[in-house]
Structures are given as C-alpha cells and as structure tokens.
C-alpha cells in the first residue's frame, strides 16, 4: 500500500515536470530556428510553485520586520513562508506597541485622578450634578406657574 502511494507521488511529479521538460527539449532541438525564451516569459507561462509577488504593503512589512533594509533589495518573487514569518513578526511588534500604549494610558488616568480634589469621587460628582438639575427644574416650574 505504501509503495503504491509512493509511485503515485512520483508519477504526479513527472506529470508536473513534463511540460517543462518538453519545452526545454523543443527549444534545444530547434535552437537554430527559434530565439531562446526570455526568463520573464517563462515565468508567465510556468508559474514557479511557492513564489509570491509582494505588494507595496508586503514590502513595507518585510522592511519593518528587518528582513530587508531597502525596498530595492526585495526580489520580485519571494517564498510565501518568508512573508508569513514577516507578518507574524509584525503582529507581535504591533501587540507589544498596543500593550505599551495601554500601560501608558493607565498611568495617565491614574495621574489625572490624583490631580482631582481630595474627597471628590465620581458618585459625589454625579449626586451634585443631579441636585443642580433638580434645582433648575424647580426654578423653571415656579416660573411657569407665575
């Protein structure tokens, strides 16, 4: 059973390579009749498995994670694994930045609460505000009855 599965894999690999082998054999046998196929056209005809053309955002991620120093150093095609690793590093960096900003915001809230008057709490502030509203409502009700 295992040998049969192994032979299927070999046949599949041969079938995948067959167009490439035929193209190279045809170009070598009739090399004097045809000009060689430029590399760019060969890439278009036969997509190289495991290659990915990075977008501008992907290039920024690759540079931000330290994989490449400049955008010119990034090749036109990169393996998807390289981009996955860079994206994971970018996620981790972003999480660390968010954690840092959250901690800074917590300290800012604590500092602003300490600057408030002593004995002043949110409940006492709400009670004072509601008392003021009741007084205003009572004044407006008296003015309407007059």
Structural summary, described in words:
The protein is an all-alpha fold and 146 residues long. It has three domains: 1-46, no CATH class; 55-113; 116-146. 71% of the residues lie in helices and 0% in strands. It is built from five helices and no strands. The chain has helices spanning 2-29, 39-45, 56-64, 80-115, 122-145. The longest helix has 36 residues, at 80-115. It is elongated and about 85 Å long. The protein starts with a helix and ends with a helix.
Mean pLDDT: 76
Question: Number of DSSP helices?
Answer: 5
Q: How many strands, what sense, and barrel or not for the largest sheet?
A: none
Shape: elongated
Low-confidence stretches: 25-32
Secondary structure: elements and pairs:
Blueprint: H1 2-29, H2 39-45, H3 56-64, H4 80-115, H5 122-145
Helix pairs in contact: 3-4
Question: Which keywords apply here?
Answer:
mainly alpha, 3 domains, 5 helices
Task: Explain briefly what this protein structure is.
The chain is mainly α. It has helices at 2-29, 39-45, 56-64, 80-115, 122-145.
